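ok so I'm stuck.
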Amino acid sequence: MLLLAGTAVAGLLLLLLLLPALVARAAPYLVADAVAFASTAWVALRCERRLARRPPVTLLDIFRAHASRQPRRLLLRFQDELYTYGDVERRSSRVARALARHLGLRRGQTVAVFLPNCPTYVWTWLALAKLGCAMACLNSNARGRALRHALAAAKAAVMLASPDLRAAVEEVLPDLRQDGIRVFYLSAESPTPGVEALGPGIEAASDEPLPAHHRADVTPNSKAIYIFTSGTTGLPKAAVITEKKLLLVANMCRLCGVRAEDVVYTPLPLYHSAALLIGLGGCLEVGATCVLRAKFSASQFWDDCRRYNVTVIQYVGEVMRYLCNAPKRPGERDHSVRLAVGNGLRAEVWKEFLQRFGPVTIREFYGATEGNAGFINYTGKIGAVGRANVFLKKFAFFELIRYNVERDEPIRDERGFCIPVRPGEPGLLVIKITKTTPFHGYAGDPEKTEKKVLRNVLVKGDVFFNSGDLLMMDHEKFLYFQDRVGDTFRWKGENVATTEVEGTLATVDFIQEINVYGVSVPGCEGRCGMAAVRLKPGASFEGESLYAHAKECLPSYAAPRFVRLQEALEITGTFKQCKGNLVREGFDPNVIKDPLFFLDEAKKSYVPLSPDVYADILEKRLKL
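replied:
not stuck anymore, here's the structure
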């Protein structure tokens, strides 16, 4: 009897010892899932409690608390300039007082900021926040019609600009005056007749804290910022960022592991949500230091990281690929960067980056500026944008649904409801719109706002945000970005994801950059694949090599039928590739001056596309 009892105890002890290993094998990500859930829940609860106070504690208040407790702590570095939390607090108060006095700004108004990356951007944002004014972040590359459209969408009555953008200002100045929009330069002098420079007034203003009445009416749902979409397929849309969303997004850095002692390198434009809300906003939230660069430079990137003792870098779009494409230099692993935070990193570039630059923890995330939820890849799974763990849908219920690429709409069943996809199958990401995950839409554009809303998705009466993105979930519940629904096209009865084709062909040794899109061919259904290519310096186009690689690595329907060589590919300020003009221009050699090639199956190569060959394609004498 005692022997049996001893055996039972020994067995129980053995089971307890083996339990962690058994759990790890059965559910290998359970601990990471639980930690991520707990962190997200704590951040969300903390934000709710802050905003529930009267008055609510916003990101501005958190910055001011840091400035009060640690005024000498370094907040901002720009070139050789250094600014502490106390410096920025005083400068922003001075700007706020000058704007209130000279411009008569009142709380609730919207002010457009048209500045390049510079320290002035930072204290101008905080100054407007102190006045209770919303800031419209104009793309510094916007010109003419796009610039006027952005101002109108945000209903801005005032534009604060830099003399560096004088040509763009003067181009639209007569129209702005006609629209009743006042324009000022944030500089000591004005190069434009009739446009006042506010620099002298700002320098003469007091840097004492502003009275609280300026923000007396601020609530969690008050409009804080307008961030404009990149406009890759048309005019930019003004996404509404409320005080609550601003605070939540600023906590992304905290969730990714950024700490107060970190130095965060931000070479991205401040008019974009990644740099302003996550990078700079994240520093304001945790009390860290932000190193701001005027423009991204692949050749200067690591030199900057060493110079400023950077510990966290921000990336977006193609930035990491630019770094990997840069010529190799000695000491590339000689840096203090421990963490990279961003989105849009392709798996093959991810691997190359780690191999070349060292064991940097990468926190890839997914989220749209106007979206109502997102994901963070907290496990480091290469290529994934996040993970649909068992806890995630407690925060934000989402689904991947079947999508008809050709008709550009979700596929519905006989009851009229959308159909969830199976693991391994791409689907449109939709996120339920609720009180905790609201969708605020676009300012001044109710029609485009409504287009982002899907109704009666899974049950009658439900409402979801349409992300416009195709994602795929594998059997382990990791999520992978596939493509934008407007970028995916249908050819030979199959869906072609442009990002997958780009990722495959980007590894060809003579290709520096590639942009894949679909073009219409008379008499053919769907759209035919085409690639705009920029060659590496000193390289030449090798049609046979590209043909062999495409045939080996891509399904026949996905291999581009046409190739267009360009000296530079058109991109937005946040490195998103522009496809609209390329799609419209098509593949006509009589119009396009760039070298054109087409896939010739008989010659097993990409060969020059002449006007005669083009005519044969149109007359269906040449089969694609």
